[in-house]
Amino acid sequence: MHALTGRIVLAAGFMFFANAASAHVGFGPTVGFSNGLAHPLFGIDHLLAMVMVGAFASQLGGRAIYLVPASFVGSMMIGAALGVLGFNFGLTEFGIAASVFTLGALVAFRSHLGLVSAMALVAAFGLCHGHAHGTEMPESVNGLVYAAGFMLMTATLHAAGVSIGLLITRITSRYGDVVLRSLGAGVALVGAGLMAGAM
């Protein structure tokens, strides 16, 4: 069972690894609520990072289940505003790639970070993701509506990650933790490819 799970995760990781360098922002129009909703679903880096934030929160349990994702979304809003205003972080793309790797690794190793540390870490990543989106957005009402869409989808993906984490560990009981940690390892592998492409 363990060997089979490992092979599946490794194969999935290599499949995504091939496209790692071109995974992030710049896909599709950046105006309108529906475009904002769709945008996070078409960037593998954002999609995986959001789900891993939720899975990581589910592993920590307790108040982390909602406070860790909330810290990401709140920081993402700040990052988006800074992006729209023209502030340049310099390492935004690398930070986004690092978020995929780090969050996957945290899930893979079942990290027991304290609540404040976990919130601070995901907030730093949220700033990077938000900044990347903000630099794409027009300074208009359409841009704000777009932002509302991608914020809502981000929160939805966090909730999906929490649900996946809880369901895997509870329904599959004996092997649940192994399956979830294996998924984290696969995401970390994708993140390593993204980091290589962002350098």
From TrEMBL:
Pfam families listed in its UniProt record: HupE_UreJ
Transmembrane segments: 39-57, 64-85, 91-109, 114-132, 144-166, 178-198
UniProt keyword annotations, A-Z: Membrane, Signal, Transmembrane, Transmembrane helix
Keyword flag Signal: yes
Signal sequence annotation: 1-23
Lineage top rank: taxon: Bacteria
Keyword Transmembrane annotated: yes
Identification of the protein by name: HupE/UreJ protein
